[in-house]
Amino acid sequence: MSEAFNAERLTRLCGFLQQSPTPWHATQRMVERLEQAGFARLEETANWQLSPGKRYYVTRNDSSVIAFQLPAGKLTSLRMLGAHTDSPGLSLKPNATQYSAGWLQLGVQVYGGVLLAPWFDRDLGLAGRVHVRHADGRLESVLLNVARPIAMIPSLAIHMDRDVNAGRSINPQTQMAPVLMQSDTAKLHELLGQWLEEQHGLRAVEVVDFELGFYDVQPPSLVGLRKELLASARLDNLLSCFVGLEALLESDGSQGALLVANDHEEVGSASACGAQGPFLSDVLKRLNAQVGGGSEESLIQLIQSSLMISCDNAHALHPNFRDKHDERHGPAINGGPVIKVNASQRYATNSVTGALFRDVCREADVPVQSFVTRADMGCGSTIGPITATEVGVPTIDVGLPQWAMHSIRETSGTRDVDYLTRALTVFLNRPTLS
């Protein structure tokens, strides 16, 4: 097996991670690369005119994206890649402004299964989307990214909580409101107005609504004496979004291929732009109507002749907590992509899809691993089972091994990035799915 360390790819990845503090920013970055590669934008509200051999993309909610390439002939199958654009974090409440002990703080709500303890004493920025009303009454949605340390959540000194290292619980309602400035009069909307003027030149606008969250402004970094590790926020699951996009852009375009990156996986995927929603099904119906058979029967044939690789990171074997893994299923960082298996269908993998992915990795000269949760522990899930249920497409769940999943800063392997990219590119170029 070759051990690739693609420095240019890692540079692109670090840039993507740093510039994507929210699902909206991640989608925007992906769209920019798609357009640079010649993908044409489609609007869901317009009539589509698709041509064989062309490449297209469409977004929903500006936080989910589907990109696809069409074969030169009739569309009879698709090689699909799936990922998600969201990550656990702290989101602002609608009426977030609050004061305590002479300090302006902002109230937060927890998004997804956040590992709370690492959020303390971090340099926090703020990002998301803001909806404003102009003087003429026109509403506009703009992205905001205050990419500098404007807030932090200070820890309580150990002298005032001697039991803190014994596993004290954390209350997100009362103990995790970030501190922004020493003031008992400043208001969030006033600050938003200042930031909107700084970043977009918007003046005399009214802030009508927003979806904003805090994030760690520390940039990604390569860690280890040989730079074996990549440390960053939001590796789960922007790493898969990046790798899927790299593979799509590097594929030769000979086969029908599709990449879907859904929002809201971390909170169950039950939204119009989530994997449980109709976004992917809507696109597949329109593809079938334009360049497939056109009938309901041909749509089913298209779906059943296709394959979805759902990419979401896997739990790497932790050197300090080896007992948390099944002793025969502890994926190693930089040991290659991980096939995720669960008998209760928390992952969508079966022996048919697993065998095909192993064959893809063999063809790509990439090592492959397996992950099964200990039989006495619960198992998370991904968009894989949801997509398989909603669409009916044969699906496999894979991912890259990482430590500290759902922390504010996660860790994965630098060589694994290239391993999975190569495997997915081979999959997208594969003439047959058997």
UniProtKB/TrEMBL annotation:
Its cofactor is Zn(2+). CDD domains: M18_DAP. Its EC number is 3.4.11.-. GO terms for molecular function: aminopeptidase activity; metallopeptidase activity; zinc ion binding. Signal peptide: none annotated. GO terms for cellular component: cytoplasm. SUPFAM superfamilies: Aminopeptidase/glucanase lid domain (SSF101821), Zn-dependent exopeptidases (SSF53187). InterPro entries: Peptidase_M18, Peptidase_M18_dom2. Keywords: Aminopeptidase, Hydrolase, Metal-binding, Metalloprotease, Protease, Zinc. One of its GO terms (biological process) is proteolysis. It holds the Pfam family Peptidase_M18. Belongs to the peptidase M18 family. This is M18 family aminopeptidase. It comes from Vreelandella aquamarina. The lineage of its organism: Bacteria, Pseudomonadati, Pseudomonadota, Gammaproteobacteria, Oceanospirillales.
